[in-house]
Design goal:
Elements: H1 2-10, E1 16-20, H2 39-44, E2 51-55, H3 62-73, H4 77-84
Antiparallel strand pairs: 1-2
């Protein structure tokens, strides 16, 4: 979790979405509360933070770009070709 926490800290604020998880089934988007915890702490304590988070465009981070590229090149060629189109 530490590497994910550090990634969350490196990403621009608009690429990290996090909210308090205990919400009603239907809620207006503007009524959803964000946690005031730092994003790194949310990630480090995701099992107890009471939040969920999404890290967007992680392939833009140099460390994760290498990992993303390695994983992507392992997909079967037909799948990778279809996704690229």
């Amino acid at each position: 979790m530490e590497s994910i926490a550090k990634l969350a800290e490196r990403l621009p604020e608009d690429r990290v979405e996090h909210n308090i998880a205990n919400l009603p089934k239907i809620v207006a988007p503007d009524a959803v509360q964000r946690s005031d915890q730092p994003v790194g702490e949310i990630a480090r304590n995701i099992d107890t933070s009471g939040c969920w988070m999404v890290l967007k465009n992680i392939e833009r981070d140099p460390e994760y770009k290498r990992c993303w590229t390695r994983a992507w090149t392992r997909w079967p060629p037909t799948y990778a070709t279809a996704r690229a189109a």
